[in-house]
Amino acid sequence: MEKNHVRLKPSLIVTKEWLLIFSIPKNKLISIVLCLFLTSIALFCSFQFEHYKQTIGKIASVKQIDKAEQLDENGNTDTKTTQELQIQVLNNTYKDKSFTLINEFTTSQINNHAYHENDYVFIHVTETNNALSGNIIELKRDHFLIILIGIFVILLILVTGKFGLLTFLSFIINGSLITGLLVLYRFTSSQLLVWLFMFTLPIMIALTLTLVNGWTLKTKITTVSTIIGSGITFLLGWIVISLFNHQGLHYEEMELVTRPPHVLFMSSLLIGSVGAVMDVSMTIVSSLLEVAHNNQSISPEDLKKAGQRIGEDIMGPMTNIMFFSYLSGSIPLVLIFLRNGMSFGYTFSIVLSLEFARALVGSIGIILAVPISIKVTQSLLTKEEEHEC
């Protein structure tokens, strides 16, 4: 028994089996080292300012000029601070030159940011009578984003190995396809975006699942289930919204968009439906195939009951996740409205109507995905067995 343990302290014994949890296989270790190397290169490139088209500046010094309390008509208090920033230009025409600007911000930082010494910022610079002036466009945050992506990929590798890399690859491909569709949409009719996504999303679904699982029976069943489930979900949402002529949906947050806002909203509804349905379909299909594999004599009725029990377990949490993920992004705006005397009803209708509609349609998709996935699994498993016979 003593040989199976490593004694670290008189009161602490750690088994070798426990230590195996923290061991990393060689292939994972190589992938992690490669990921760290690529992240380091990307991080290094983010500080090679001459490669940026936008002008970048570094805040060399910060001097606080004034600080005053403010009180609005609703009794909200805030502190307004005035800063004098000395900014050194790091690239483009005015490289190595400096200029001074005044920055005003409040403690809430709703309209402007508080800047600190050694912050990197994107700036717009002009020259008048041999004197530079300019303004800050936004903080330069890409190096933080690179670090977060690196951490994300490393965790994917640690937890799922090569499947994590394939998942990340599918994420890049799908992101590129969506970006390409949006670029194409700029040069097409204002009404075509929904149709572009309707024809492209089935390809994206099949591509994502094939990259992660290969073109297996599980991939086929999940692909069919996702396409059917998301199609029915989107159709239901589109019919209801069209019948009520978009009443109750406020598109004010899209007022700066030069394309019809309802087209953009319906496109986002379609994408959200696919995401919700795919998640549930994969869970149901994977579980049912595992059940069928371990008990090859199971009847279709028992398989259906097993799928229903799995669906009951995941339906509640998934629906809550759907609502939380959509509504959480609107919390800051909700608080601003409420703190400025707006009623909850008005705030809900203006700020949350679109997010609530997306969450509601996505939740309908989650519910529909359970019976659809069960039925498709039963049908394709039966065909597979008949083919083998």
The low-pLDDT segments are none
Assess the beta-strand content as a share of residues: 15-25%
The residue fraction in helices comes out at 55-70%
Sheet bearing the most strands, described?
5 strands, antiparallel
Strand order of the largest sheet: 5-4-3-6-7
In quaternary terms, these chains amount to single chain
Radius of gyration: 27 Å
Instruction: Count up the domains.
Output: 2
Shape verdict: globular
Keyword list:
single chain, 389 residues, alpha+beta, five-stranded antiparallel β-sheet, two-stranded antiparallel ribbon, 10 helices, 7 strands, transmembrane helix, YibE_F, membrane, transmembrane
Describe the fold and architecture.
This protein folds into 2 domains: about 25-160, no CATH class; about 160-389, no CATH class. The longest helix is centred in the last third of the chain and has 45 residues, at about 345-389. It is about 60% helix and about 15% strand. It has 10 helices and 7 strands. The chain has a 5-stranded antiparallel beta sheet with strand order 5-4-3-6-7, with no helix packed on it. Strands 1-2 form a two-stranded antiparallel sheet. It has about 400 residues and is an alpha+beta fold. About 20% of the residues are buried. The model has no long low-confidence stretch (mean pLDDT about 85).
